[in-house]
Amino acid sequence: MSLFTVPIPSCGAHPGGSITVTEPQPRVYLLTFVSPPDNRITTVFCRALMQALDILEFGDFPPGVVITTSGTPKFYSNGLDLEHAINTDGFWQLFYDLYPMPTVALLNGHTFAGGLMLAQAHDYRLAPDPKGFLCLNEVLFGAPLRPPMAAIFRHRLTPQAYRTVALEGRRVTGQQAVEYGLADATAASVDDALAFVSERQLTEKAKPGVYGVIKAELHKDLLRELRKDGVDAEDARFDEDRRRDAERKEFGKVWFEQWSKENKSKL
């Protein structure tokens, strides 16, 4: 039985959809999003997700656990609308925020690029099993990881795992995702996610009222970087790094032309 539904409005080429919230067990809230064709993450998607979370927090619902998943079997999410994200002021503040209950991402299909970033914003990740891949594939189609995008993975992963995921763009299976630290376990169904919640007694963790406070302290460095001042400062640093690299390349071309002339004359 549905507790409530939040609409996802259309956004550019994306037709919109909805987030349906159910309670498969007491104090376990399942948020199922459907935004055809592949759950692209846009401002309106993020706002709808945050609205659903706010209803659970401030409405007449006892604190418990939030599980997000997709109603589209093939995809949890196929990523950001990157141009939209980069050109939307305040987007990253929508993308990652603290929540005073445990959050679990049940990745029931392919989870690529920005979809994987959304998964990393949860406290726990359950990778798809037996089908479905996880991938940070920006390196394969020439999209740089902007500072807020990189920050989430740098915060979550070991340097070795981050190198493999970011610089190789490797598609990993659910079990490999667990090995790399991208996920905490694999799951084939909502029942598996409920078993994970029960095993860790997660429904009890938000009741004393300090879960969000402890989470904020645990992730304070990431939060500082993703707040507006942090994003602005890191974007300025990123752009300056790109300017210096362009200058280096231009100098390198001039140097090589001169080197070629000098060495050709000696032959």
From TrEMBL:
GO terms for cellular component: peroxisome. GO terms for biological process: fatty acid beta-oxidation. The keyword Transport does not apply. Keywords: Isomerase. The keyword Cytoplasm does not apply. One of its GO terms (molecular function) is delta(3)-delta(2)-enoyl-CoA isomerase activity. It holds the Pfam family ECH_1. This is Enoyl-CoA hydratase/isomerase family protein. The lineage of its organism: Eukaryota, Fungi, Dikarya, Ascomycota, Pezizomycotina.
